[in-house]
From TrEMBL:
InterPro entries: C-N_Hydrolase, C-N_Hydrolase_sf, Gln-dep_NAD_synthase, NAD/GMP_synthase, NAD_synthase, Rossmann-like_a/b/a_fold. This is Glutamine-dependent NAD(+) synthetase. Deamido-NAD(+) binds at N377, E406, K517. The keyword Lipid biosynthesis does not apply. ATP binds at G294, L295, S296, G297, G298, I299, D300, S301, T401. L-glutamine binds at Y117, S173, K179. It comes from Marinomonas phaeophyticola. It catalyses: deamido-NAD(+) + L-glutamine + ATP + H2O = L-glutamate + AMP + diphosphate + NAD(+) + H(+).
Length: 548
């Protein structure tokens, strides 16, 4: 006898409970009629979308969830529906999963382990559950768990002790580099501990800075991966189990049938797709008409433009070159070539007269002061005003082009090149930017070779190069990764890599004093385990001394 489970790897809209309810119903009907599935499993908090954040505090949440469950109960039949939602019981809110079949709510499970680190704030909203839930589905005893539960041995062991032969794990596990491998190692460990097969169903889509890449998969009781759904693809993916009458079978009564295993993505491929998905969902879910960005002829804006086109199509993207006195002919040529290669609307709007107008007006205020970065910042802020005017007029969202290395040390201008609604490269170090450009060109040549190989420059002063103000990006990014992502002290960084002491202290000081800039930066795609956003919350005003 075969027992088929449909993994519903879907993209929901946070807060759209009615719309999400209809998606659940449609998916359940499709799983039943076209795939002959007996069970369909949705991700964590499917009804609200993930993460709902302080929508969970709204008094109207409870009746909306109750109404949604009633609609599903009265509509979907002849298939077991396992969905996640928030549930209030005796005044306490639980992160729950319910099992629905033929108009009945057969049982509810409350998440036992609540993460409260990195981007997770479960303890702000929820109370921990304590009891397992095992439901008989067509003669198979199925236990439930939710996301963080699988990172600990106790919840799945409780399910096994309660008689579970199979565990369904509902997830909303956001992407970061290396996360895919971590999940596989984790499920291998849990399966080997309990000799139970596990179905891991993950969310797919993006919400603000978080990206969920799907990649739902199934391991057998030996921890071997038997089925792997694609990454970055919405849909229903089937897992078949054979039920044996032989209770003494060494593989257990329930055996996973080997199915399709999606290929592993390279780091560059997974990061690039995360960037595309993050931007696409932000644009579409917020109903922007399109995207406008400043195209400088440099590598960051070139990569950002490619992501924008891959996200929403060339016909909805406008690139604007805003040259000034220090803009090289090379930059003008490269920007035009990038725009032509990608087929976007391209405008050249010189800003010299605008900068002169600002400078003339400010001349009395500047009298007696030498030229400094103020004049450079005027150029960047003029460009920011220009892009925002186009945005207001056309309904296009401005996306910024600064990378994580620059944002870390404040190598960006508030109300200038930081102006925008979303940042594709916010969590991408400069050294990775180069790799991503080369990766994108393997899919189709869109970034001129000269853009990748020329020395980076903001072109705000004569013959300016980034490395005039900063260490080489190879060194800078290593220091930043150790300080930002590992929280290592200056002395620990110096000792670990034998970096120059003065350089390390200067970089760390730049990171610390520019927290105020990052707080005002737009949100952007999170691709590391420690992005600038929900992950890292340092005080802007503080007396912490750099050192040990």
């Amino acid at each position: 006898m075969t027992f088929r489970v449909a993994m519903a790897q879907l993209d929901m809209l946070v807060g759209d409970i009615k719309g999400n309810t209809q998606k659940i119903i449609d998916a359940a009907e499709l799983a039943k009629k076209e795939h002959q599935a007996r069970v369909i499993v949705f991700p964590e908090l499917t009804l609200t979308g993930y993460p709902p954040e302080d929508l969970l505090l709204r008094p109207s949440l409870e009746p909306r969830i109750e109404q949604a469950l009633e609609v599903i109960l009265s509509t979907v039949h002849d298939i077991y529906v396992v969905i996640g939602y928030p549930r209030r019981v005796n005044g306490e809110l639980f992160n729950s999963a319910g099992v629905i079949y033929n108009g009945c709510l057969l049982g509810e499970y409350a998440k036992q382990k609540l993460p409260n680190y990195q981007v997770f704030d479960d303890k702000r909203y929820f109370v921990e559950g304590s009891d397992p839930l095992v439901i008989d589905m067509d003669g198979v005893k199925v236990g439930l768990s939710i996301c963080e539960d699988i990172w600990h041995p106790e919840p799945i062991q409780l399910a096994k002790d309660a008689g579970a032969e199979l565990v369904l794990n509902l997830n909303a596990s956001p992407f970061h580099i290396e996360k895919m491998g971590e999940r596989e190692q984790l499920l291998h460990k849990r399966a080997v501990e309990t000799q139970l097969p596990i179905v891991y169903v993950n969310y797919m889509g993006a919400q603000d800075e978080l990206v969920y890449e799907g990649g739902s998969f199934v391991v057998n009781g030996r921890g071997q991966k038997m089925i792997q759904a694609p990454w970055y693809e919405s849909g229903l993916f089937m897992a078949d189990f054979i039920i044996h009458d032989d209770l003494d079978s060494p593989l257990g009564r329930l055996q996973v049938c080997e199915g399709e295993v999606a290929p592993v993505l390279s780091t560059e491929a997974s990061v690039y797709q995360a960037m595309v998905l993050g931007l696409r969902d932000y644009i579409e879910k917020n109903r922007f008409k399109g995207i406008v960005l400043g195209l400088s002829g440099g590598i960051d804006s070139a990569l950002t433009l490619a992501v924008a086109v891959d996200a929403i199509g060339a016909d909805r993207v406008q690139a604007v070159m805003m040259p000034y006195t220090y803009t090289s002919s090379m930059s003008l040529e490269d920007a035009e070539e990038e725009a032509n290669l990608l087929g976007v609307e391209y405008s050249v709007l010189p800003i010299e007269s605008m900068v002169k107008a600002f400078t003339d007006i400010l001349a009395p205020e500047f009298e007696g002061y030498p030229k400094d970065t103020t004049e450079e910042n005027l150029q960047a802020r003029t460009r920011g005003v220009t892009l925002m005017a186009i945005s207001n007029k056309k309904g296009y969202m401005v996306i910024t082009t600064g990378n994580k290395s620059e944002m870390a040390v404040g190598y960006a201008t508030l109300y200038g090149d930081m102006v925008g609604g979303y940042s594709v490269l916010k969590d991408v170090f400069k050294t990775l930017v180069f790799k991503l450009c080369r990766y994108r060109n393997t899919l189709g040549y869109v970034i001129p070779e000269r853009v990748i190989t020329r020395p980076p420059s903001a072109e705000l002063a004569p013959d300016q190069k980034d490395e005039d103000s900063l260490p080489s990006y190879d060194i800078l990014d290593q220091i930043l990764q150790m300080y930002i992502e590992q929280d290592l002290s200056a002395e620990a960084i110096i000792e670990s890599q034998q970096f120059d002491r003065e350089t390390v202290y200067r970089v760390l000081r730049l990171v610390d004093i520019n927290e105020y800039k990052r707080r005002q930066a737009p949100t952007g795609v999170r691709i590391t385990a420690r992005g600038f956003g929900r992950d890292r919350r340092y005080p802007m005003t503080n007396g912490w001394h750099i050192g040990e």
